Amino acid sequence: MTRALSTKWSLLLRKEIWEHPVLSYRLPVGFAGLLVILSLVSALLGNEFLLSNSGEWMADVQVDGGDVDLANMGSPIAKMGSAVAAGFGFLGLLAGWSYLMSALYQERQDRSILFWLSLPVSDAETVLIKGLLGWLVIPAFYFGVGWAVGGVMTVIASVAATWLMSLSGVLLAAIAAYGANLFDLIALVVTQVLWSAPFLAWTLLASQWANRNPLYWVLGVPFAATLIENALLREAAMTDWFWSRLAGNPELGSEDAILSQSFQMFLGLGVAGGLVGLTILIRRHCYDRLP
Amino acid sequence: MNSIVQKAAHAPTPLVSVRSLSKAIKGRQILNNVNFDIEPGRVVGFLGPNGAGKTTTIKAALGFTSYEGDIRVMGLSPRRQRHQVMASVSFISDVGILPRWLRVDQAVAFMAGIHPKFQADKARALLAESQIGENALISTLSKGMVTQLHLALVLALDVDLLVLDEPTLGLDLLYRESFYRQLYERFLSESRSLLISTHQIEEIEFLLSDLIIIDQGQILLNESLDSISDKFQTVEVRPEALSEARSRGPIFERVNLAGAVMIFSNLENQDWSALGRARQTSLAELFVALVGGTNKPSKPNLESQS
To answer: Considering CB atoms only, which of A12, A14, A117 is closest to B64?
Structure first.
């Protein structure tokens, strides 16, 4: 029974990936490949450039406001790789949001919902699988690809530095520093994913409800609510709370910040849970709402 | 009395039971007190003009839309237990509802993992008999091929009830013939039932055991085909016998150069030879007579009360 269920859910996930191949894997893998190629090209061209300048150019380079310590190049190279991985993580959040916007809208627009409804799959399973894919799986996959490509770029840059400047130990130092950054990066991406849960859940609900482009609902309703709240209360505390979930929380990413923000995090998860529950109810009772 | 009790005790439990089904949309009554049963092994034709309420009835029976009244499918409420109902029921709609981005092999793999009663080997064998490529994208298939694929997926399901809502709409004659032949050869059995809504009544007549005719949200006729052939009589009335024929109360009359064609109901053991040539009423004639016939004396409600 459990095996049948896991097979069913894994197929439901795969079905979503078949439907959205660009967002779910082609975009990050393609982008990663492009970055690796650009890294290789720039390493080769950069070496030629630096060799022609006898290494003097490096003296002007600054990282974190300080001059580059050529003997300890490993750390800044690893930071570059980590930035790439984090960038992929946030790109994954954006891709997940984009997916959620069409997840429940597209099937109604192309009328394939009649086929999906004719299968023994409950509304809760459908909504939860789609929600999990957009909220967790896509950002996690993007981050994984980003971490891999960040690692490859770290290696390429380290090898280039070693070859160009005859620096020993750069490669090992960079890889060690890159590995040490992993848990901080995971914490940053996971907390931002959790932080954005209410906004993503609202996007899923709008995808179920909208009869036209769900973006109008996703952004239009909170915008209208902000105007109304401002007009009535001369402030927008509630809607500001919502908008902050869209913008992300720059304070997150450290253990202290996670603890201090944990109440807000759980509150957001509770709101997201409520919105997902509402989405399931709407799907169950409003099959007739076809765009 | 005993025979009635005995009959009730042996009456098969209906696969589908619809009681007092009503639905209104924006103040317009779409369905009005619809009642019918579908028993195991029956092939029920569901006929009605456009807008009669066929699709709404079917969607209600599958739990796809809200309704008033009581519907039971395999003893379950389709509204509250749709996904459990759909484990024993399959459905093909009037429009190409298979997702266009899906590949044929993906569709088979998906069904195999999702549906406990799906036989992937059977689906592949059925598809191998067609022109549909295993890796073809559904968006590249013709409408006929999409319907063929959907039928193959459905025939590979070991379900008790198949519901078809205008499944061959827009298909050419060859596809339609192939579709119904496959249904007849590969789906129908003593324990499996079929509910089929279509306009092409003459093409499914050979399949049917029962007929339901609906118009303006109300059931006009709900009878077995045996009962229909007993109850209804078509007579090609000679011109000189028109008055006499009309006095017998036809439910339908169409005047032509040779006199008139009239349909009579519930007039058994009549001598029709004085009026003209009597013959069996075709389902198409009956449909026209009940729903949209010209020169129709009245629109009778002949829903079986049994």
So the answer is: A117
Asked if residue A166 belongs to a domain, the reply is: yes
CB–CB contact A114 B99 (8 Å)? no
Of B59, B83, B95, Cβ closest to residue A121? B83
Judged by CB atoms closer than 8 Å, whether chains meet at B65 and A125 is answered as no
Conformational region of residue B27, where left means phi above 0, alpha means psi within -120 to 50, and beta covers everything else: left
Complex ipTM tops 0.90: no
Give bridge partners of residue B37 from the DSSP assignment. B17
**pLDDT tens figures, A147-189:** 999 999 999 988 887 777 666 677 888 888 888 888 888 888 8
Alpha-carbon gap, residue A160 to A47, rounded angstroms: 7
Q: How many CB pairs under 8 A join A and B?
A: 75
Contact flag B113-A10 (C-beta cutoff 8 Å): yes
Residue A183 lies in a domain: yes
**Cross-chain residue pair A287–B87, CB shorter than 8 Å:** no
Report if residue A291 sits inside a domain.
Answer: no
Structural tokens at position A187:
């914490």
Q: Is residue A231 part of a domain?
A: yes
Domains of chain B: 2-216 (3.40.50.300), 227-303 (no CATH)
Domain count, chain A: 1
pLDDT tens digits, one per residue of B5-47: 444 445 678 999 999 999 998 889 999 999 999 999 999 999 9
B210-215 vs B193-197, strand pairing mode: unpaired
pLDDT of B174 over the 50 cut: yes
d(CA A46, CA A52): 10
